[in-house]
Amino acid sequence: MQAKRVTRQRAQNQDENAGIASRATRASTKTVGKALVSTTTAGTKASQPLNRKRVALEDVSNFNKAGQDASLEKETKKAVKGVLTTKTGVTKSRSRTALKEKVVEEVKPVEVKQTVKAAAARPRKRSNSSARATQAENNNENEAPVEEEKKKTKKPEVAAAVEVKTKTKEVAVQKPTALEKEGEVFANEPNSKRTRVVEPQPAAIILESEEDDDPLMVAEYAEEIDAYLRDLEPKSMANPEYMDHQDELQWKMRGILVDWLIEVHTRFRLLPETLYLTVNIIDRFLGLKQVGLDKLQLVGVAAMWVAAKYEEVYSPSIKNFIYVSDGGYVEDELLRAERYILTTLDYDLSYPNPMNFLRRISKADDYDIRTRTFAKYLMEVSLLDYRFLEYPGSLVAAAAMYMARKMYNRGSWNASLVHYSGYTEDEIMPVFKLMVDYLARPVKHEAFFMKYADKKFKKASIKVRSWAKSAAVHYKVDLNEPVDL
Hints:
Order of helices and strands: HHHHHHHHHHHHHHHHHHHH
CATH class of the largest domain: Mainly Alpha
Domain Cyclin-like: 259-343, 356-437
Number of helices: 20
CATH architecture of the largest domain: Orthogonal Bundle
InterPro entries: Cyclin, Cyclin-like_dom, Cyclin-like_sf, Cyclin_A/B-like, Cyclin_C-dom, Cyclin_N, Cyclins_cyclin-box
Shape: elongated
CATH topology of the largest domain: Cyclin A, domain 1
Number of strands: 0
Oligomer: single chain
Helix content: 55-70%
Mean pLDDT: 73
Family: Belongs to the cyclin family.
Largest sheet: none
Keywords: Cell cycle, Cell division, Cyclin
Structural class: mainly alpha
Number of domains: 4
Low-confidence stretches: 17-66, 92-131, 140-162, 164-201
Pfam family, one: Cyclin_C
């Protein structure tokens, strides 16, 4: 039995070493042969009975040959290593512990720079990969110092960029001063992106450089259009003292009518030009004809209906105007009033309103949305206060822009603004003080005040009122003078 077992073990050992021996060279076969001879000699000496069971089915070796098996494994490993080195030409230089140390060193954040410098200083050894991989690593070694230098050079540039960004943020956060040099106070609002305190370029340069290529701006005709509108202003202005010829009317009644028309205008969502033309038609008609108190509202409704037809794309119908008048008039009365007004004015509705001039002045102000919104509110003051009738619309627009810029500390009234508005600071000052006088007094026209107290108009009526009270003291405006508003 023992002889059969020995022969079976020899066959199994030969099967296990068959794969290795077939791949080995002539030099390696000698060492493997010696190992096999040692196993056969050890197998003949094994005559003792088995003392324990096999650990696994795959394990068919004898338990008494522990030392011989260990030496055999070592020799076979050496033989396989010799075969691999002769075929590939690569030798394993570093142990696993060294690799672990290298990985640990690379993970440490403090010693990263030192390891990179050391790697750049010493030549890299061959790895277990192919020769091409080693060549690529050598190329990377040559490029490593260059990349380090680039990183070093980029760091100050990045720091400078961060400093520039922080400076720009600090500049953007800055708010306008609460007190001007002249002593005005205004609302604490942040500067918008388009706000510029820097003095703009001369007017002619701005027009030619930015608007010459835009066909919608008709820059080549801008000067002629502006001159034509200024020629029309004196012809379309109403008599500033026409109330002296009205027996039943007073300036206060006119203010109440215009305040109500502003409310109707807001409800119908009409254009600003429609409102200005409505008030102009009323003043011109009342300057030519005497009207009773019971027909004053009819004149106002008919004037707005005519203006809406002239300015709007889709004007409200006659039924809408009868409805807002609370049924006080019928369609026939409104139609007859329309014909009578147009005949009296000789169908002349060419009125250059302040909005036409404000759009041109806004060009010199860089189209700032805040100053333009407040200027619209200030211009509508001229509709309610009869004292503005003696001033043309272009001067009212210039004064409104002047005051809005004062509120937001937008700089002085420079040469560019003088060119676009057509007025100097001295010519604007009387209208400016008149606006301050109206705004600093108690509120008399609630519909007008509530319209611009909305968030849509940046609560202009509330903010301007708080500023006008301090401005009235500074500019020595007499608020005790009686005014029939």
